[in-house]
Write a structure and sequence with these properties.
The complex is a heterodimer of chains A (156) and B (351).
Chain A lengths: L4 H14 L5 H28 L4 H21 L3 H8 L1 H4 L2 H15 L4 H8 L5 H20 L10
Helix pairs in contact in A: 2-3, 3-6, 6-7
Chain B lengths: L12 E3 L2 E3 L4 E9 L1 H4 L9 E2 L10 H20 L8 E5 L6 H7 L6 E3 L6 H14 L5 E8 L1 H8 L15 E2 L2 E8 L8 E7 L14 H20 L8 E4 L3 H14 L7 E2 H4 L12 E2 L1 H18 L3 E9 L3 H5 L6 E9 L9
Helix pairs in contact in B: 2-3, 6-7
């Protein structure tokens, strides 16, 4: 039996009375605390590299490398998925979350081999971010080119 | 509902949508449970509690069919028969092409029939086994189901180590295997007699959220249970308990409301809710999976049937979507099958 429009809206009303609401305030607070803690850790590394005399741009890149490495390591140890379970987007959105998306896929599909497993599926989760991130940068680049907007620090 | 044509038969025959069974008995049950399930409230009742959900194997998939093999092996041992003494094996699971069941069966050398209606598979297989025994086509049948949390996660959702926050209506796929022996005739020390089996209709109220299977399955459960009670000629109060498979904390109250609308006032038990401890285990709306209802039925319902209850009804509930169908924005069809079992010492046709 496939419900028609009327039966569907009748059932949606019943469902709405029973479906539990996500604890939004608690989730937001936890996301703030977990996300804030992760970025604070990043800041500690940033200050460390700056203190060692690294220029601002380089220090930022070094920090990103360290946070990605930490995200991948904690994924391998089975800890990062617990951090996201508690912190939600506060832990999924930082670059360590991106590392978790790539590493977890690599770990999961290793059993199907290096080519059809890891090679083919490492970006199953992170893929859309890469595709649309790169597409977005191309579109912005074309707009800059067409409108002849000078790029700060660019050579053209 | 209930408009089915009565078919003449040498046994109890068919009434409405229900197939009445006279000579089919559950004579043994074995449960193999994963580590999370062992930490739940039924932990001490499982026959084989596992400490490692990989069973020392190289993949979750291998672990799943090894669990199935262990359950079937122990079942034969408990009955004092060789595995090849089973006339037939009816099995199913949640993996693509039910490979957990077929790979378990390839080393068992028994005629094999695969069954699948997602998490309603257990009741489907148990009902079919009862019919085959009752019809005189088999003497001893092995019914086996398995599910593995991580196999299902990677197939239906995400890599197991990917962090994500599940909504409160989400359910936790159980890791475990269960095997049951269905016999034509009581034999020695039967656990229960199977009385009737109602296969369900596939029902779809256009729920599209794959994290909310309780809402998707509740109408199917209400539909089948209504037909089953009517065809068995019973009031809900005549059962020690009415169990649903894995409607969870969202599906159960919806199903109870749908039943109230039809004049059936009942408090449902749910295998998915009883498998875990919501206070200590973060399973959200409860358990699910092919093994979920079978684990609870084998470790908790059957023992209570001989002690506290005279009869029990189990409504297995299955959500029949695949990753492809929900990615293509199809809604989630569901099915529910009902089976009634009673204490083995009760006279037949007592209802």
């Amino acid at each position: 039996m496939l419900a028609d429009q009327q039966q569907r809206s009748w059932y949606q009303r019943i469902r709405a009375r029973h479906i539990p609401k996500a604890p939004v305030v608690r989730n937001l607070l936890l996301a703030f605390v977990v996300g804030g803690s992760l970025t604070a850790i990043g800041q500690i590394f940033m200050d460390f590299f700056l203190g060692r005399g690294a220029p601002l741009e380089k220090a930022g890149a070094y920090t990103a490398v360290v946070i990605v490495l930490l995200g991948a390591l904690l994924t391998g140890l089975g800890i990062y998925d617990e951090i996201v379970r508690i912190g939600g987007m506060g832990a999924a959105l930082p670059i360590s979350g991106f590392a978790n998306a790539v590493t977890s896929a690599a770990l999961e599909y290793r059993r199907e081999g290096w080519i059809l497993g890891v090679g083919a599926k490492i970006f199953t989760i992170a893929g859309p971010v890469l595709v649309y991130g790169i597409l977005g940068s191309i579109v912005v680049g074309i707009i800059y080119l067409v409108l002849r907007i000078p790029i700060p620090g660019g050579t053209g | 509902m209930g408009e089915g044509v009565a078919i003449a038969s040498h046994t109890e025959g068919r009434r409405g949508r229900t197939m009445r069974v006279a000579e089919a008995w559950i004579s043994a049950a074995v449960t193999v449970a994963g580590p999370t399930e062992v930490r739940g409230p039924l932990g001490a009742a499982f026959d084989v509690p596992l400490r490692d959900d990989l069973l020392g194997e190289r993949s979750w998939e291998r672990a799943e069919w090894r669990m199935g093999q262990r359950a079937v092996g122990l079942l034969a041992q408990r009955l004092g028969v060789a595995i090849t003494d089973f006339d037939l094996m009816l099995a199913g699971d949640l993996t693509n092409q039910i490979t957990a069941s077929t790979f378990a069966a390839r080393e068992l050398d028994i005629p094999f029939l695969g069954t699948f209606t997602a998490c309603a598979t257990f009741v489907e297989a148990l009902g079919l086994a009862a019919l085959l025994c009752d019809g005189g086509y088999a003497h001893l049948i092995c019914v086996a189901v398995t599910s593995h949390h991580h196999v299902v996660e990677r197939q239906y959702r995400f890599p197991t180590e990917l962090g994500n926050q599940r909504p409160p209506c989400a359910q936790w796929t159980a890791t475990g295997a269960a095997a049951f022996a269905v016999r034509a005739g009581a034999g020695e020390h039967p656990l229960a007699r199977i009385e009737g089996f109602t296969p369900g209709r596939v029902i779809d109220y256009r729920i599209t959220d794959p994290f909310d299977m309780g809402s998707a399955m509740a109408p199917a459960a209400a539909d089948t249970l209504t037909a089953h009670l009517e065809d068995m000629g019973r009031q809900p109060g005549e059962y020690g308990a009415l169990y649903t498979g894995d409607l969870g904390r969202v599906g159960v109250p919806i199903c109870e409301e749908l039943l109230r609308d039809r004049g059936i006032d009942v408090r449902l038990h749910d295998c998915g809710i009883e498998l875990y401890d919501p206070g200590h285990q973060d399973v959200h709306a409860g358990g699910s999976g092919t093994a979920c209802s079978a684990l609870v039925f084998g470790s908790s319902v059957l023992p209570r049937l001989t002690q506290d209850w005279s009869a029990v009804c189990l409504v297995g509930t299955g959500a029949l979507h695949s990753p492809t169908t929900y990615q293509q924005r199809e809604s989630i069809p569901a099915v529910a099958h009902a089976i009634s079992v009673c204490r083995p010492d009760l006279p037949k046709g007592g209802a």
